[in-house]
Design goal:
heterodimer, A: about 280 residues, mainly alpha, two-stranded antiparallel ribbon, 12 helices, B: about 260 residues, alpha/beta, Rossmann fold, 2 domains, 6-stranded mixed sheet, 4-stranded antiparallel sheet, 10 strands, about 35% helix
């Protein structure tokens, strides 16, 4: 495989994890525009552990995921009081807060960025990406996921049938943050150089876009969305300067025809020939 | 669904609730004995649904207490009250928009045991939950609608799905808010038979209903609510001829 293709596939794997982090939180009806912040935290924590403390990468990623999930839970509590657009703006603020924290964090390079990480293989990135996607595919058939969907559909009714909606919503933030942190750790060890600008608002938007485009009701949607967001601008290169405009047009067309994104449960069932079994 | 204690399953003592200057409930006391079907009737706006909302923790009671099997649950959060053994349905049906009938029968079941049971596919990890859902599906005759999105089904079916969802939570007391509203006579009769069957298995039921024939034939005891206060209580036969009730609610011209 050429370095060019390997680079694209690595980007897809990392974007897939970022998109899944949004998908998990969105499954409880909360839109987060700040997941690049969690990604940044994971990125810096994992890099610190491997470069300064010489940890192997896998435990460093797990530690990064755990620390980001604690931050995610802390963010999840004030998020309980906000809905819709207000929550989206608040999480956006959180993402910018994280970015400017690392901008001023001179121990790890501040605005000059941080380096010294060992390059990681494409296979390693995809082992994490595929592993977490598989885990989520199993989780989608679980009681926990049903509860998350119940909170998404009607939070009051979910409480009145005995579900702890607070724990569900806050837990989703913690879980989503952990997945974003793994994306960040892998990003750092793929590009072997990170700077605060890597974790800005545009990246959070990319995550959300991948979910909305690929399908926001199934985990596999994030995979399709991530692949399209990385590959479409490449395929559209023949349009030269117009390719981003073409990409935007395609995006609008998809959302006009399929509000739930390209993939959804009925379509997946058709594709896998499973007919109507749940 | 076994009788854990003797006597009162649910006891409301002097419940009061105001919204701003409006007194929605004042000094409401009632008792649901173990294994009874109790009805709450009264004109629109009398405070019946507010009463249900206070019992289930959707509203905080202004005064008084709610006691379930000897335990005071007045200010508990909804989900704890549900887990303690009260399940309910809603006057304006509240099903989950994206879920199939089958998913509704799994979602409300209480957790039992290990974390793995909760995070792995239900079918392998919790066959007992799967079986309970199957049982509820058959009991309410919903087999044909198993994989349909519940919200797209006819009204009467949706009511049944909501009741089935409430039952899979394994309640000791079932609260039904206008269970036969929008149903025709045959459907209402069928539902009455199902509820009597559940009651025979030990389930206690508290229900709000406007369909007098349904209430009179089903309930062991009735409370009549008017302007947020209880104006009468007793056996259906007594309520039917109570002059206060006739005046406030049933009307004097058309005996039922």
């Amino acid at each position: 495989m050429s370095t060019y293709c390997a680079g694209l596939f690595a980007d897809i794997g990392i974007l897939l994890l970022g998109a899944l982090s949004v998908y998990i939180i969105l499954a409880t009806g909360q839109l987060s525009l700040g997941n690049a912040g969690f990604m940044g935290i994971g990125s810096y924590v994992a890099s610190y552990l491997t470069v300064e403390l010489h940890w192997p990468l896998t435990p460093a990623l797990i530690a990064a995921a755990l620390s980001a999930s604690i931050i995610g839970i802390i963010v999840g509590f004030p998020a309980l009081r906000l809905k819709g657009i207000y929550l989206a703006i608040a999480t956006l603020g959180f993402g910018e807060m994280v970015r400017s924290f690392f901008l001023n964090f001179s121990h790890m390079g501040g605005s000059g960025g941080y380096h010294g990480m060992q390059h990681v293989s494409l296979g390693y990135i995809w082992a994490w990406a595929a592993g977490i996607l598989l885990l989520l595919t199993l989780l989608e058939r679980s009681r926990l996921w049903l509860e998350m969907r119940a909170v998404h559909d009607d939070e009051t009714a979910a409480g009145l049938i005995g579900l702890n909606t607070t724990a569900t919503k806050v837990g989703a933030f913690g879980f989503g943050a952990a997945v974003a942190a793994i994306a960040g750790g892998l990003f750092a060890h793929h590009y072997v150089y990170i700077e605060p600008a890597n974790f800005g608002f545009e990246r959070s938007i990319d995550f959300v876009l991948a979910v909305i485009l690929g399908g926001s009701t199934v985990g596999a949607g994030a995979l399709l969305g991530a692949a399209l967001i990385v590959l479409l601008p490449e395929w559209l290169r023949f349009l030269a300067d117009w390719r981003l405009a073409a990409f935007g047009t395609l995006l609008i067309l998809v959302l006009l025809t399929r509000r739930q994104g390209i993939l959804d449960r009925p379509l997946l069932a058709k594709l896998s020939f499973r007919g109507k079994s749940p | 669904m076994t009788a854990a204690t003797n006597g009162a399953l649910l006891r409301l003592a002097n419940i009061g609730k105001s919204f701003g200057g409006i007194r929605a409930l004042s000094d409401v006391s009632m008792t649901v004995e173990q294994n009874r079907i109790v009805g709450v009737i009264g004109p629109n706006g009398a405070g019946k649904t507010t009463l249900f909302n206070v019992i289930t923790g959707a509203y905080r009671a202004g005064d008084g207490e709610v006691v379930l099997a000897g335990e005071t649950i007045t200010y508990w959060p909804s989900y704890r009250i549900m887990r303690a053994g009260i399940a309910r349905t809603f006057q304006n049906i509240r099903l989950f928009a994206g879920m199939t009938v089958w998913e509704h029968l799994l979602v409300a079941q209480p957790h039992r045991g290990a974390l793995l049971r909760v995070v792995l596919p239900v079918r392998w990890a919790d066959p007992a939950a799967w079986a309970r859902a199957e049982e509820a599906l058959v009991f309410f005759g919903l087999q044909d609608y198993r994989n349909a999105i519940a919200r797209t089904l006819p009204y009467g079916i949706q009511r049944k799905v909501e009741m089935a969802r409430a039952l899979t939570a394994g309640p000791r007391l079932l609260l039904l808010d206008e269970p036969v509203a929008g149903m025709n006579h045959d459907e209402a009769e069928e539902l009455r038979a199902l509820l009597m069957q559940l009651n025979a298995r030990g389930l206690s039921i508290l229900l709000i209903e406007h369909d007098m024939a349904f209430v009179m034939n089903l309930c062991h005891e009735l409370y009549v609510l008017d302007f947020g206060a209880i104006i009468a209580q007793g056996a259906p036969a007594d309520i039917r001829s109570n002059p206060v009730v006739l005046d406030a609610y049933l009307g004097t011209d058309t005996p039922c």
